[in-house]
Write a structure and sequence with these properties.
By secondary structure, the chain is of the alpha+beta class. The chain is built from 19 helices and 20 strands. It comes from Rhododendron griersonianum.
């Protein structure tokens, strides 16, 4: 490399205008580095050699022009420095219906983009000419001078940061799976290529380009509806008076099978910050016989109003067997007030009344608060959350919305971006449901064929492989009660597990244990005997 000086009277300003103040520019001569007598067998080999020599010396060399299909002429290419040429401001020519250029409603003017921009162009004169002969490509140096010093690092330069074809394929595969964030994609690429100089912007641009191609000109909502149809989802939507989508309900086809297999208890709750449009996401989940949570359905709704919930529940009902509708639907009314735990968890009505009297004595100085609790909560809602009443409902142990809120947390960790569009958010939910299905099938298989040692006792002989291990685990404390206390009749036992879980309680198990006989399968609720959902299908398309 040699350095020379050249006198010029032009200087390019940041805005692309020319100021006629004379300056001296240093020229960096790299003619020798790019001079070669090698003949390159293909265009790819030629391009790789030129770009690698440029990188070694701190310059980014790009294709300036190419003539591959010229008549009566050999194919040829011109390479130049990325800083060659002049800055050309981008203009957005907004036109009216007649084709006239407009700016802010005025004809004959150009509308400029209001962005703060810059340029790396400095009219660098460097240029190579390459011609394809009979034996291959040859290189000649037209001008080996650069009018700017070599770059100290290539990070921040768009051209060398571009992804290779292999890296682009990897990115597309990871985008399709929807399980990797841009940061994880970039880390994986850099882990496989230590010389990679791509940035997060490179990944975002590549993802956007892939998404734009995949959408094929469709809007976000059109693309999402097409995907729901492609994967066989059950989908309902409704629009407002302006023909804009108001609510969207969907359910994975396998989720529908699970819903019809385990319909008795459902939990539902709304969450926020899952999409850039600020639509609440309503998630409805159910519980399998192995205590696994599955997402029965999702819905983007325009508000948490009665009509929105009614519309969602009507669509959910259409997916279900009319003879097997939910017995319990758990929602969130923010009842978790620890100051009155003893009141809420009173197992009998008499204990509830005692706890209520105790609370009134302790808070005698706050009559307004006591009145609010009694009139707003205990009066109209005590049957929905006080144990004295909920212990008479078969809820399978689900008394709060914690289970669905846990699913919200998993979902948000998958989405990892509160500014995601509808289709991107759906893709994350789709992948999450697939993981749920795999986990649930695995839990079924364990109950069928892989039993815990604590369940390998004679009293469970008829249940192993026919009922879930979760059910047997819930029955173990009842079996231990028989040894610790006398439970010969229903009054002494209380039978809470029979009412809340549909499982035999201590007084039902005692006769079989005393006779050394196994517990019969007929005493187990059908919920716990369901260890597959493959054969549960909906008769017809929908029930009405």
């Amino acid at each position: 490399m040699t350095i020379a000086s050249e006198f010029t009277t032009e200087n390019v300003s940041a805005q692309g205008s020319h100021i006629g103040s004379p300056v001296w520019l240093d020229l960096y001569d790299f003619t020798r580095e790019f001079t070669t007598e090698n003949v390159f067998s293909s265009e790819d080999v030629l391009r790789d050699w030129i770009t690698s020599i440029g990188k070694e010396n701190g310059f980014v060399i790009i294709i300036k022009s190419s003539e591959r299909m010229a008549k009566n002429r050999s194919p040829r290419m011109r390479f130049a420095c990325e800083r060659g040429g002049k800055y050309r401001p981008f203009i957005n020519k907004a036109k009216d219906k007649g084709g006239n250029v407009k700016e802010n409603g005025k004809e004959g003017k150009v509308k400029k983009i209001g962005r703060v921009t810059g340029t790396k162009k400095c009219e660098c004169p460097f240029e190579l000419r390459c011609i394809k002969g009979l034996e291959g490509w040859t290189v000649s140096v037209v001008n080996g001078n650069h009018n700017h010093p070599p770059a100290k690092q290539l990070e921040g330069h768009a051209y060398p940061a571009r992804l290779s074809s292999e890296q682009s394929t990897m990115l597309v595969d990871m985008c399709v799976s929807s399980l990797s964030s841009p940061r994880e994609i970039l880390s994986l690429i850099k882990g496989k290529d230590e010389f990679n100089v791509s940035s997060m912007k490179t990944i975002y641009n590549a993802r956007y380009k892939h998404g734009f191609k995949d959408r094929a000109g469709r809007s976000q909502m059109q693309y999402l509806l097409a995907k729901l149809q492609e994967y066989g989802y059950i989908e309902f939507n409704r629009k407002d008076d302006n023909d804009c989508l108001k609510d969207l309900f969907w359910s994975h086809p396998t989720s529908g099978d699970m819903l019809r297999s385990f319909p008795r208890v459902l939990l539902m709750d709304c969450t926020y910050k899952t999409n850039r449009y600020k639509f609440p996401l309503l998630q409805i989940v159910g519980i399998t016989s192995t205590e696994r949570t599955f997402s029965a359905a999702f819905a983007f709704i325009d508000g948490e109003k009665v009509e929105n919930y009614t519309w969602v529940l009507e669509n959910l009902k259409r997916m279900m067997d009319p003879d097997a509708l939910p017995c319990v639907i758990v929602t969130d009314r923010e009842l978790a007030l620890h100051a009155w735990d003893s009141l809420v968890y009173s197992p009998t009505i008499s204990l509830y009344e005692q706890a209520l009297c105790t609370m009134k004595r302790e808070f005698v100085l706050y009559p307004d608060a006591i009145k609010y609790v009694e009139t707003s909560w205990l009066g109209p809602y005590r049957q929905k959350f006080v144990s004295a009443w909920t212990n008479n409902v078969m809820h399978f142990g689900n008394l709060t919305s914690n289970r669905v809120e846990s699913e919200h947390a998993k979902l948000k960790s998958h989405i990892s971006n509160c500014q995601a569009n509808f289709s991107a958010a759906w893709a994350k939910m789709h992948d999450l449901v697939k993981l749920q299905i795999t986990d649930i099938k695995g839990s079924f298989e364990k109950s069928l064929n892989c039993w815990q040692h604590q369940f390998r006792i004679p009293i469970f002989d008829h249940l192993r492989g026919a009922a879930s291990q979760t059910a047997m685990g819930l029955m173990l404390p009842e079996i231990k009660k028989i040894d610790d206390m006398v439970v010969e009749d229903k009054v002494d036992c209380g039978c809470p597990i029979r009412r809340t879980h549909g499982l035999p309680c201590a007084h039902e198990i005692a006769p079989f244990k005393n006779r050394s006989e196994p517990i019969p399968l007929s005493l187990i609720n059908d919920h716990w005997k369901m260890l597959s959902f493959e054969n549960v299908k909906m008769m017809g398309q929908f029930w009405t």
